[in-house]
Amino acid sequence: MMSSKLFALRFSKVRSASLPSVATYHKNVIDHYDNPRNVGSLDKKDRNVGTGIVGAPACGDVMKLQIKVDENGKIVDAKFKTFGCGSAIASSSLATEWVKGKSLSEAATVKNQQIASELRLPPVKLHCSMLAEDAIQAALKDYQRKQAQA
């Protein structure tokens, strides 16, 4: 397991190398990039935690998004770890904010177009919002699989 200090160091190195020009990013991307929300991990062995890991072979971005669901089916926590560009980090951060407090069915309605619109992603970065949607869907599917096995 990667220590939080090591992750923070690797994360900061990736961040500094991944955001080439602030002028090309909307302030919403910069905000989530400079101040990412919900960075970290949940216990993937917990039956109330769903984990989605997705990647984009074209650019090398890898996104892990996790949700923790309470006994009423509400998402009470969400965490992410993303290795990728500023838009991928911002998309992950926003996605975790949006799914918190939602039911599973509500979280399933979060679409990449909404994430891209909120962050004002340029067309060349739309794959980042698609990864975030895919990560949410994968985390929901993993959680549902665990519940079916219980």
Secondary structure layout plus pairing:
Elements: H1 4-18, H2 27-34, E1 49-56, E2 61-69, E3 75-83, H3 86-99, H4 104-107, H5 112-119, H6 126-149
Pfam families: NifU_N
Domain NIF system FeS cluster assembly NifU N-terminal: 24-149
Family: Belongs to the NifU family.
Q: What is the name of the CATH architecture?
A: Alpha-Beta Complex
Largest sheet: 3 strands, antiparallel
- Oligomeric state of the chains present here: single chain
Beta-strand fraction estimate: 15-25%
**Secondary structure tally, helices:** 6
Span of the ends, CA to CA: 26 Å
Q: How many strands appear in the DSSP assignment?
A: 3
CATH class: Alpha Beta
Descriptive key words:
NIF_FeS_clus_asmbl_NifU_N, 150 residues, Sufe protein. Chain: A, globular, alpha+beta, 49% helix, single chain
Describe the structure.
- The protein has about 150 residues and is of the alpha+beta class.
- The chain has a single domain (about 5-20, about 25-150), classed as Alpha-Beta Complex (Sufe protein. Chain: A).
- The chain is about 50% helix and about 15% strand.
- The protein is built from six helices and three strands.
- It has a three-stranded antiparallel β-sheet.
- A hairpin with a 5-residue loop joins β2 (about 60-70) and β3 (about 75-85).
- α2 (about 25-35) crosses α3 and α5 (about 110-120) crosses α6 (about 125-150).
- The longest helix is centred in the C-terminal third of the chain and has 24 residues, at about 125-150.
- The protein is globular, with a radius of gyration of 15 Å.
- The two termini are about 25 Å apart.
- The relative contact order is 0.18.
